[in-house]
Amino acid sequence: MEPSCDLLFVYGTLKRGLANHHQLGGACFVADARMEGVDLHDLGPFPMAIAGEGFADGELYRVDGEQLAWLDRFEGVPRLYTRHRMPLRDGRTAWIYLGRPRQVRHSPRLAEGRWPATDGCRSRQGGPQGLLPVVLLFAALLSVQGLRAEPSLALCRRWQRSDGSDAIQLGNAIGAAAYLTKVQAFAESDPDHPRLLYAPGDLKRACGAWR
Questions:
Q1: Which of 33, 41, 85, 143 could potentially form a cystine with 104 if both were Cys, beta carbons 3.0 to 4.6 Å apart?
Q2: DSSP string for residues in 151-179
Q3: Domain count, the chain
Q4: Pick from 31, 28, 11: which is nearest to 92 by CA?
Q5: 33 - beta bridge partners?
Q6: 133 within some domain
Q7: Would you name the residues annotated as active-site residues?
Q8: 86 with 154, same domain?
Q9: Do 9 and 65 sit in the same domain of this protein?
């Protein structure tokens, strides 16, 4: 018996030609599509959609239960994203990964509903300011009492591929999310002159479970 399949709508780095498309694991491309009832925000390295009154343009794939389980892990469900079934513009329904309003309050909304932006307002792909929304996102998660915001596989892999100030800020976000012990107990990092607050070995171990 063949496994049952669902439709999945993707709008960020899982799209064709982007960094994490291979994480779809051979899922069958169905069509370009538009999801209604969401607002798309630009976090720089990746976008985040939340429930709203706008729309997002993306791609539709057919996935089975095993692929969905892997993608849930990759996307950091339920702490970073949650998966919802929502209507497409053509009337069909599909799964989509959504964030929460507090996670995007420091990030610009993409009124055109597409990431990377195509209207000349390019998405920020690097540099300290480009990663600031990601750091603030994890700070928002950690501000919720009792919530342990474990680093997602996507964040860990981006850190492993980064260098310089990008690697420092991503490393600090992972360290905070995993409740690691700082190298110096009361040390802080200035966004304009970032310094790594956690031991590289501890960061690697924190990400090890996500490989």
A1: 41
A2: PPHHHHHHHHH--HHHHHHHHHHHHHHTT
A3: 2
A4: 31
A5: 58
A6: yes
A7: 75
A8: no
A9: yes
